Amino acid sequence: MERLVASLAVAWSLWVVSAVSGVQPPHIVFIVADDLGWNDVGFHNPEMITPNIDSLARQGVILNSSYVQPVCSPSRNCFMTGYYPYHTGLQHKVIQSSIPGYVPANVTMLPQKLKELGYATHAVGKWHLGFCNWKYTPTMRGFDSFLGYYTGAEDYYTHARGGGFDFRSNKTVARSYSGFYSAMTFATRAEEIIRTHDKTKPLYLYLPYQSVHEPLQVPQRFEDMYKSIETTQRRTYCGMVSALDEAIGNITQALRDSGLVDNLLLVFTTDNGGPTYAGSNNLPLRGGKKTLWEGGTKGTAFVYSKTLLQKLNYTNTGMIHAVDWFPTILHLAGGRPDPGLDGVNQWDMLSRNSPSKRKEFVYNIDDLANNSAIRYICVGSPRYGDLKLIHGKPGPYNDWYPLPRLDEDIQVDKKKWPLYQLYNITADPTERHDLATEFPDLLASMKQRLEGWRQSMVPAHYPPEDPKANPQNWGGVWSPGWC
Ligand SMILES: *[C@@H]1O[C@H](CO)[C@@H](O)[C@H](O)[C@H]1NC(C)=O
Ligand SMILES: *[C@@H]1O[C@H](CO)[C@@H](O)[C@H](O)[C@H]1NC(C)=O
Ligand SMILES: *[C@@H]1O[C@H](CO)[C@@H](O)[C@H](O)[C@H]1NC(C)=O
Ligand SMILES: *[C@@H]1O[C@H](CO)[C@@H](O)[C@H](O)[C@H]1NC(C)=O
Ligand SMILES: *[C@@H]1O[C@H](CO)[C@@H](O)[C@H](O)[C@H]1NC(C)=O
Ligand SMILES: *[C@@H]1O[C@H](CO)[C@@H](O)[C@H](O)[C@H]1NC(C)=O
Ligand SMILES: *[C@@H]1O[C@H](CO)[C@@H](O)[C@H](O)[C@H]1NC(C)=O
To answer: Is the pTM of this model over 0.90?
Structure first.
């Protein structure tokens, strides 16, 4: 009851504000590309054919220091909750289909907050934040509707993985989408939401695309755009990026046709760095998906708005982390985050190129993999610059992987790594010179800082696989009901 009164009070004050100023909170379209690497969009690499993405980015603000987690579920946890995964138990790997993993039920997700503020909320695409119990699924966590899949990856056409089907409309299994490539299906659903949206309400559309995660599959016409690329993996991957680009073109056309574009913030971000072992590329950055290197964590991202950004068409170098979207979007919606959140409101940085509110962040603290990394901009005297401490093995892929020209496997790195590494990201953004032995005092103070962060860690929740999850127990469908 108290909550209801509080939310009514917020809704009322918001109504008063909008009634007085005549301004409705903006529509928010939040697009997550899956496994898109640094070097995999036209605005970073002219070989890529992404005219729609490039044009939105250039009419908006390109983010050059936008950090995400090394893998899928943890990044989505950040977007939806504003907490680092090491505070929600999601810091180790991803939520595997047969493991009862989830964002804990007591953590409020962004759409729940936005609904209290009068938003219509819709999710289209990949969930990957838990489904072993209905209470972890999107329509139980603040979304009015959902079209998509609960697990982390599947066939783009059959929507099957590991012996089970995984595609739903709200909570209902939706077999009629079989046979259709998901990039088109999700664009069509997004367009439908946009075109039928009741304009007296603000819209929050969360679009976590399947593209461009494995398996490498794309309709031929997209692959044909890259005839000059000889490597099959890379050619298909690039085609997938162009299919995503066409989908975004269709969705933005719907935003223009419906008029929603006149009061809109569009966010585009990858969920993690590119999997260099599956056609992606992160040059000049080191490493890739599944690693704490910049190639795994410095994400391709931009924001676009016709009306809300005071400075446009430039590259913003301010530091922003995936957890910051929650309080930033909530601020735009007229709400306030609960105290204790890891994210900070970065609207001044995004809209006016003001300095970032962030001087440091946690890449991850993984108590099961025994690795972690933090970042700290040391602005005291002397000014040591923008430092990164890595503890433990950064991950399985540790090189500067060239654009593939031949189909060859990238070998998993089994080398032993020093216990601590220290990089100066200002002078060395591609992490070539480990300074740990050269600056023992700096190393000691960074270690102390990491230990400070670690104090608040929640142990990783990564239980063993549960045979009850097997789709054979659920009519051949990955389904809730086993935790
Ligand atoms: C962005 O700025 C560049 C010059 O820096 C200019 O060539 C380009 O036309 C601008 N793009 C837009 C969409 O304004
Ligand atoms: C953006 O980041 C890339 C990769 O670290 C770097 O090469 C480039 O100089 C940066 N651009 C700006 C404007 O800082
Ligand atoms: C959720 O519950 C856990 C365990 O009781 C607690 O440690 C955590 O602080 C709670 N989180 C929130 C956001 O309330
Ligand atoms: C999903 O739920 C929304 C909101 O209740 C409803 O409008 C929509 O019709 C539902 N979709 C399906 C396919 O049931
Ligand atoms: C974009 O829209 C065109 C025209 O309706 C359609 O032919 C195409 O399949 C759509 N592409 C995607 C990726 O949704
Ligand atoms: C992490 O460290 C613990 C304790 O030293 C060890 O038992 C475990 O095998 C290590 N895990 C990995 C993935 O290296
Ligand atoms: C890091 O690089 C910056 C820029 O080159 C430099 O000013 C700073 O002294 C460097 N810090 C260390 C510890 O080398």
So the answer is: yes
